[in-house]
Amino acid sequence: MTTEREDTHREQIVHLLGQVDRRIRRNDALETLALGAWGFVGLLVLLKLTGGWEHVSVRVGILVAGVAAFIGFVVWRYQLASSLFRSAAVADRRADLKDSLKSALSFLGLAERTEWMALQIDRSAQAAVELDPEDLAPTIVPNRLYYASGAGVALFALLSWDPGWLQELERTPFLTASQEGQVEQIEELLDDVQALAPEEEKLEELSDALDRLRRRDIELAESLQELSEAQEALAASSADLERLEMDLEQLGKQLESAPALSDLSDALKSQNAAEAAELLRELAERLSDAETSEELQALLDSLQNADVQNQELADLMENLENAAGDMSAQDIAQMAEALEAMAEQLESMGQQMAAQQNMEQMGEELQQLEASLGQQQSGEQQQQSGEQQQASGQAMQSQAGMMSNQMQMAQMQGDPSSAMPVDAGPAGDTTGPGGGGDDEVMGEATTLDVQLEMEVLSPPEELEPVPEEIFERLSREEKSTLNYEDVGGRASYAEESAMQRESVPWQYRSLVKRYFLSIVTNAESTAEP
Amino acid sequence: MIAIEKEIEQFHKQYNAVQEEMGRVIVGNQEVISSILSCLFTRGHVLLEGIPGLGKTKIVQTLANVLNLDFNRIQFTPDLMPGDLIGTNVVRETEAGEKYLDFQHGPIFCNLMLADEVNRATPKSQSALLEAMQEKSVSVGNITHKLDEPFFVMATQNPIELEGTYPLPEAQMDRFLFKLKIEYPSKDEMHQIMDRTTQVDEAAAVSVLEKGEVLQMRNTVLAVPIAKPVQDYAIRLTLATHPNSPHSHALTNKYARFGASPRGTQALVLGGKMQALLNNRVHVSCEDIRKVAFPALRHRILLNFEGEAEHVDTDDILKEIVADVPESTE
Q: Both B50 and B135 in a single domain?
């Protein structure tokens, strides 16, 4: 009976503690996972922001490391032994059971138990039945999980963010509407040329330069340089085109002598390579006719006399001359193949000509765009220099103003060393207005005499006073507004003597007296003559 | 189990009766009274420390009255000899004229002994208490005399007077289960003290507990079980007071010369059992251990020179230890 009861108590306690343990482990796992996710996603965001995300190896490495860490974490958590004592401690603390469950669990592990221990287990089991595991160990979603989610959203936004609208905003003030139209036209031409001559490297570079110009990844000066290089490359291609056209025209003229090949001659003269190729194919089909062989003979004669500069055309004609030998050997089939090859070559040349024409047009467009951008750049430079000049002008004005203020202040304070003209320029600027460029610049005084000499005020010029001036000067003198009061007259003898106290020490009085007496005597003696 | 419940109930009843009766005489100091009773019911001894006039002796005298046990008060003085404490052999003569040695029991042969101002006696006399307190016996010559149970020593000492005093040796200090500090009473308590002690009829306590009941209550306390994790906590607390050990606390390493002995852990566990019973529990909790940590360990930590120089209080060290030692190591 007692054993059954103990077993029931054990089950009740262990069941509760098991549930609490699971919840604690779940919370721990969530906490650790949240920490890991927070760090992992944060690292990804950091990589994305710093540009490390662009490297595929880094991306793959981090993802693999993250997955490996997650698997390792799961294995580690799985292998962790559950601790009912820990959950008992948590439950005791949460339910304020004063270590009741912990003690009961400990007593349950003993082989022999006293009645006191049995009583304790009984009490703990009763408490365990009334407890809710969710209250003891509630599910806690760690804050880090929210942070990790936020970082994940930020990462998703960064990955799916198309900054085109921003670039659009940035580009608007960079290119004018007409420039934008020119760029679009060049891009259209570029697409056509790339379709006809996809292997041109210069075209790729030009396309890249235009893209950068649109995205404003390139400065105006740099874009001008890029466009200039592209234009030079296109100009070189145009030279090839001119040579090719000349060759075809010459070939057409050579064929004028054969009336049967007048159509072919016209087509070549008008640089219509497609039509010429078609005519050559027709010629190849009619090789068995006698009339045709005459036409062919005429063609071969003409070609032998033709002086072509285009290498491809020259090769073609050499093949044709070889085929002529076949014709003499009545090898019509080989001749037909040679004509067919020539027709294909002409078609290819036609395409090349079309591409070169587009390139030529594109070069013109580029020239216009370059000129436009050049004007824009010079305008910006002028504006910048204007602003700088304006700023420096303002600085000079303010400096001059400060100087004049200082000088006025100095004049008011009677400082002769600062007595400069009010409209003097900035210090050290002897070329400025009123700067006294020709004035003597004096350094600091080196001796006391010189210093004193500089401080001596030049006496005012003594002019012969004019009676009118004397009169006016006297009339300008104002009468004092203070009432004169004879203070000394009202003072007592003691006050008066106090006011007239002799400041010369008595032992020097006779000396001073003798000095002044001697001065007076000398002055009288000099004045008498 | 019902018997145990009844035993606990009886314990509470008797304990409350003692406390209530003491409360009629002693004003305040409830913690001190509770700790003294803890020592009494856990077979320990108590050392009371406080300045003169705070009622140390009064508390012990009242307890003796309440418990109806043999009580002796010994005023420790510098000229007190061990024989004055434990007794001596006296030459007697039979009716036949034969002489024999008869052991004259000293005042130590009692149930409650108040060693008043214990630090005024010489170490020689203080040491006379060692065997009695630990072994509950006294050896005179080649004869060992067992002391009657319960044997409970309550010693008082004055911390402020140094002249003419002999600090208790460490071995002696270790034998006290608790060292209690008696603080000044509050203003209201002072009013009550005045009301009770300055009138014609002074309050007096009556006996509410017999010797047998005390022994039964002792057994009840000792029967309270303690779980291994809680006991482990008590041990870790004790080990934290040991300087330069794997479990030692930083403050201990800095200021302590010696830590608490296993007697300190015993004091923690026994005090914890008493606290558990008082809280109507049949198991000891970590909180019970913490509650008795200060009186149980404060006199077992010996300060080093640095600690003495900086006037470090062992209570401050214990405060940090209690705060820092975790309940569980998992």
A: yes
How many independent structural domains does chain B possess? 2
What does pTM read for this prediction?
Answer: 0.56
B227/chain A closest Cα distance in angstroms: 5
A27-41, A304-318, B12-26 — most confident range = B12-26
Say how far apart CA B121 and CA A367 lie, in whole Å: 118
Q: Point out which residues pair with B143 in neighbouring strands.
A: B140
Query: Is the same domain home to A177 and A319?
Result: yes
Give the integer Cα–Cα distance in Å for B297 and B272: 13
Judge whether A123 is closer than 8 Å to chain B, CB to CB: yes
Residue B282, domain extent: 224-330
A85/B230 touch (CB, cutoff 8 Å), yes or no: no
Chain A interface, mutation test: which of B281, B283, B286, B327, most A Cβ atoms within 10 Å? B283
Q: Which of B145, B138, B141, B169 is nearest to B155 (CA)?
A: B169
Q: Is the domain of A184 the same as that of A149?
A: no
The pLDDT value given to residue A435 = 40
| Residue B271: closest CA among B253, B295, B304 | B295
Q: Whole domain around residue A322: which residue ranges?
A: 171-378
Yes or no, beta carbons of A119 and B327 under 8 Å apart: no
Of B217, B247, B262, the residue at which a domain comes to its end is B217
B1 and B97 in a single domain? The answer is yes
**Across A353-382, average pLDDT:** 73
**Chain B interface includes A6 (CB < 8 A):** no
State the complex-level ipTM: 0.84
Same domain, A181 and A149: no
Q: Are residues B200 and B257 in the same domain?
A: no
| A369-397 average pLDDT score | 64
| A116-120: long-range pairs with CB below 8 Å, 24+ | A116/B4, A116/B223, A116/B224, A116/B225, A116/B282, A117/B225, A118/A2, A118/A6, A118/B1, A119/B1, A119/B4, A119/B5, A119/B282, A120/B225, A120/B282, A120/B283
Which residue in the set B223, B226, B327 is minimally distant from A89, CB to CB? B327
Which tokens in the block code for residue B226?
A: 């303690």
